[in-house]
């Protein structure tokens, strides 16, 4: 159950960061609604943010393993 | 997210000069900024939930 | 009393944010004292920051109400 | 506010290059930055207190 | 430091456009960013420890 | 022992901030290793960051003293 709480907290943090980063990337002048190009941009940005998260996460794990081996 | 954080974010997005009052363009920007931020947040949250369901094979 | 603590915490957060934002807007090169134009700029910036806070706060409440009605 | 936060803020404001030592212009900027930050903070806090009192009709 | 913070930092450093996929230059940048960040962190931490020992006259 | 914990927390905060600030100043394009010019830049940046910390710290203490005397 603790693991589940961590997973939920992690997902929330991810969603918060993605919202901020993708708003900054995609909404240059906030209008009266999200137009379709903004929506597409947000969806794409979200996918790339998760790609980035996965890459960063893998690089970090590999590095930690290497550091442990070197100790 | 708290009002403080929305205001922090949308202030940086919308307010350039600080004169005797906020001009109407800035006011509109601030109001739209809050609404669009919530739109983006909902869009991302819903899409994330869909991706989770898809990857869970439901 | 809890309400009062929240109000105080809120005011402190507002004061902290205003100080940072208005320093950034008004003090370009920090000199040996705040000159009168910097003081005026800070006072004006503070008023506009509170205007912005009120607008943002109202927009947020309206949106939350709309979302509740749509559910 | 902690020293860390002052240093974070004033470093971004004052330090451009990082050579063999901080030049005197940068040193003056850092010292003034702290003092003016506190000035701005006091100005805002006092003015906020006045506005509160006025709106409370005291 | 959490993955979120690394990703936040390295996203700002490396990602300019968000197209249909991350291009290989951006991918390399992200991976290197994490590794170099850890290098900088280790360099600074070790050097700080040395300075502490020196100032303690050990 | 509480003092020691504060000192450790303080040092950690300092190390974290220095890492971020000096990465930003010295690593423009992260390569496959830290080259020697980047290493030199980081070491120098670190020294300057501590100089800055000392200056800021002194300026803050002096100001607090002055404010107390004026009260």
TrEMBL record, chains B, D, E:
It is found in: Mitochondrion inner membrane. Residues 2-50 form the Tim10-like domain. The keyword Transcription does not apply. Keywords: Chaperone, Disulfide bond, Membrane, Mitochondrion, Mitochondrion inner membrane, Protein transport, Translocation, Transport. One of its GO terms (cellular component) is mitochondrial inner membrane. It is a peripheral membrane protein. It comes from the Eukaryota. GO terms for biological process: protein transport. Coiled coil: none annotated. InterPro entries: Tim10-like (IPR004217), Tim10-like_dom_sf (IPR035427). Heterohexamer. The twin CX3C motif contains 4 conserved Cys residues that form 2 disulfide bonds in the mitochondrial intermembrane space. Belongs to the small Tim family. Mitochondrial intermembrane chaperone that participates in the import and insertion of some multi-pass transmembrane proteins into the mitochondrial inner membrane. Also required for the transfer of beta-barrel precursors from the TOM complex to the sorting and assembly machinery (SAM complex) of the outer membrane. Acts as a chaperone-like protein that protects the hydrophobic precursors from aggregation and guide them through the mitochondrial intermembrane space. This is Mitochondrial import inner membrane translocase subunit. It comes from Asbolus verrucosus. The lineage of its organism: Eukaryota, Metazoa, Ecdysozoa, Arthropoda, Hexapoda.
